[in-house]
Amino acid sequence: MRRYTKFPVYFLLQFLLLQAFGQQFDRADSYAVDNSNEVAALTTDANNNAYMAGVYGASQFLPYTGDCYLLKASPAGMVIWTRYFTGLVQIGDIVVSGDQVLIVGQANGNFSYDGVACGLPAYHMFTMKVDSSGNLLWIKTDDTRNGSGSNLVAGENGKIAVNYKGISNIDNYIEIMDSEGVVLQSKQIAGHYANIVDIAYYDDRVYLNGGFNGPDSLVIDDIVIYQPDVEHAAFVLALDDDFIAEWASVDTTINNRDGRIVAGEEGVYAYFSALEPPFTIVNVLKKFSFDGQMIREEALPFFTTGITLYPDMALAPGLVGLYVNNDFGFNNHEVILYDADLNLLGEMSVQGLSDLYSGQITGCDVGFLISHVHSGDLNFNNEITLSYAGPEKRPYLSRVSFAEPTGIAGAGPGNHRLLCYPDPADDLVNLVLPDSGTGLADVMILDISGKTVFHAGLPLGHSSINVSHLPAGIYPVVVKSADNKVFRKKLVIR
After folding, report:
1. What is the pTM of this model?
2. 441: containing domain
């Protein structure tokens, strides 16, 4: 059963919890890529440098095709370098693997990258890798699988999962590549009526978010996905480490072109627009266990109406973030934040002339980075303002960081390896403290105003705390280890 009802007290608690954790926009920068059509892809490396890519100077027809840029920015937002593609190119996705960057896209013939001739004379897909300075290391092309809408995601041991389309966007191809582009595993999901829109890759398993519109059924190994009686199917599909379909979850939609999926330690998260009787569109976010059990389903806040156009979703430690357009205009975008259990932490607005479609979001050590294009001044949640310098649209990059909670010095971005149970708790709460450092861990429980209501040094491993004296509510739990690593969890006391 879907849980769509929100009460004022619930919103108040979530707002205060958001303030206790101190999420905020702490910077925003605009970049001189004039006449930019889009930010098509955004990612970060281990040093919190950002990489962003997109098309500029193209006609206003989707998918945007033309000259492209690849820009690297420092953690402070300063441009480190910019490289350019010349030709009729679409950027599908970019991902960091180690200290190198992989790019997947499509091209309508030969093109150049940073002055180096690339590509084929025919319409084709390309996958390429550059080093941390933007120098081309290798490029692979394929004119038999050249539809638009490709995705990349990094996995363990330097492996990469990629999703791309066949000719005329018929058939979907899922591949695992090594760091040199050698294909290790491959799977075809056939049919003009099937559309894989996003891919996740975690612990050697691939998770797909897609849509199907009949006319009969979609068969992947032993999994059968039927078209609903009304409209189309939205599905989440899991492939095991042998690339065999393991489980699927199916819902009803109008057109799942904008679905997103991410996977991490806490589980698998899928986002899409569902169709509810009698004919209502509801934007839903679902959490699945790795064996396919749906743990929780939440609707996006009620004031985010209609189908969100080209949203993006990412994970940060213990958090799920979405960046979505909040209306059918150009001046209202939202960062929507959930904890790992899909409790809504809050929304942060980006107001000002931007673009009809949503931008990009990616996780980093300090929170999230968001990126999009703008053609006017932007107001970031009444915290900072980014001035517009033009001409036409320019790409921007902003950071949502996590400031120190009240009363805690040196707190970092948090980590979900801290366990608290039962949750909700009544009298006793059990803590399993991460095995980080030696000696005692500094444990604090805060109330929703940020006031410390419990503070003690506890040994690593298992401990129990009596919380029967605390009123019912939501409490941030913060643990600081002897080596200054910080871990955070939300605890509900009833």
Report:
1. 0.79
2. 419-493
Two tokens at 13?
């608690």
Asked if 122 and 109 touch (Cβ cutoff 8 Å), the reply is yes
How much is the CA Rg of the chain, to the nearest whole Å? Answer: 23
Which of 5, 67, 2, 13 has its CA nearest to residue 38? Answer: 67
Nearest CA-CA partner of 442 in 423, 459, 420 = 459
Number of domains the chain is built from: 2
CATH number for the domain that contains residue 489 = 2.60.40.3080
Q: How does the average pLDDT of the chain come out, rounded?
A: 86
What pLDDT, on a 0 to 100 scale, did the predictor assign at position 114?
A: 96
Domain endpoint, select from 355, 377, 402: 402
- The predicted pLDDT at position 440 comes to 84
Half-sphere exposure of 212 (CA within 13 A, CB side): 27
How far apart CA 140 and CA 416 sit, in angstroms, is 38
Q: How far is CA 278 from CA 275, 281, 282, 307, 475, in A?
A: 8, 10, 12, 16, 39
Whether omega before 422 lies within 30 degrees of 0, making that bond cis, reads yes
pLDDT at position 452: 84
Do the domain assignments include residue 413? Answer: no
